[in-house]
Amino acid sequence: MRVIVHGVGAIGGTIAAELARAGQEVVGIARGRQLEVIRDKGLTVRTPELTYTQAFDCVGDPAEIAFRPDDAILLTVKGQDTEAALGQLRAAGVTDQPIFCAQNGVENERRVLRRFPNVHGVTVMLPADYVVPGEVAVFAGPKFGLFEIGRFPGGVDAADEALVEALGHCNFAPFLSEDVMRPKYGKLLMNLRNISGAALGEGAAAKAVGALLIAEGEAVLRAAGIDWQDVGASDPRRKDLMQMRDIPGVDRVGSSTAQSLARNVGSIETDFLNGEIVVLGRLHGVATPANDYMMALAARMLREGLAPGSIDGDEVKAALGL
């Protein structure tokens, strides 16, 4: 099996580097300075225990890859970039190779399934930052990440087993999941707080707003008849396998949303996180004022180029009645 990692950022970069370090054949797909640095020097991975630089093949477009039947494609771009990535894969000649959505949110799998028949979900618990081109930082140990992997919409097959085996040779904790969307909905609830932390910083105001966002999310999922699996701190596997840890000399930027704002990339995935709750709320008659408000705030931050943590927490709490 060869692993194609489409989107070599914090998540994709960590996975690609770890797979390559374990001897797995890997091809990354990156862009801009990230691509240039990886091609020139490899990718530097900073962790609580060690720092290493790993080389692996990397291209700027899937069209540069001669796809093989034994390829497994890991889609690690953010939700707002999925459509463009799928167009690239189709134009490059991808047909029925397994495509794994190692992404936040729950809509990517459906979008892939419109174009390709062999779709899999990956619930990703991997606290990593990508801000500086050519570097990622992973703030967890003893394992860097925990994954739930299964076929979409359900079941597991040989492709899932092969990926779990490959990731198991790395410093990850991968698990097969017969119903992979249950943990993905659990991760969605956690990710509703991304925008509150990115906008307000990680203080008391962000925690209060985040709790409100999750409460709305849980109410919406119940109304929609959607079950979810807790993948947060109460997951018993987290205590033994993956806990948050500091990296000496490295400050954590925060969630993927905060990282997008810090890098000023011009887009964030809020529409595919809080936006999922807003859509389901509208479909099932459940009001979602807090998630609506934070989506509008995210759009404003993008429009005005505002930095992470620059929004007044008291102003947001007052607007949400907290």
Your description of this structure?
With 322 residues, the chain is of the alpha/beta class. It folds into two domains: 2-184, Rossmann fold (3-Layer(aba) Sandwich), CATH 3.40.50; 190-228 and 249-319, N-(1-d-carboxylethyl)-l-norvaline Dehydrogenase, domain 2 (Orthogonal Bundle), CATH 1.10.1040. The chain is built from 13 helices and 14 strands. The protein is globular.
Beta percentage is: 15-25%
What is the 3D form?
Answer: globular
What is the total number of structural domains?
2
How many distinct beta strands? 14
Major β-sheet, in short? 8 strands, mixed
The CATH architecture of the largest domain is: 3-Layer(aba) Sandwich
Count of alpha/pi helices: 13
Spatially, the strands of the biggest sheet line up as 5-2-1-6-7-8-12-13
**What structural category arises from helix and sheet content?**
alpha/beta
Kindly report the CATH topology of the largest domain: Rossmann fold
Main attributes?
322 residues, 8-stranded mixed β-sheet, 4-stranded mixed β-sheet, 13 helices, 2 domains, Rossmann fold, alpha/beta, 19% strand, N-(1-d-carboxylethyl)-l-norvaline Dehydrogenase, domain 2
Summarize the structure.
With 322 residues, the protein is α/β, with parallel strands linked by helices. It is built from 13 helices and 14 strands. Helix content is 42%, strand content 19%.
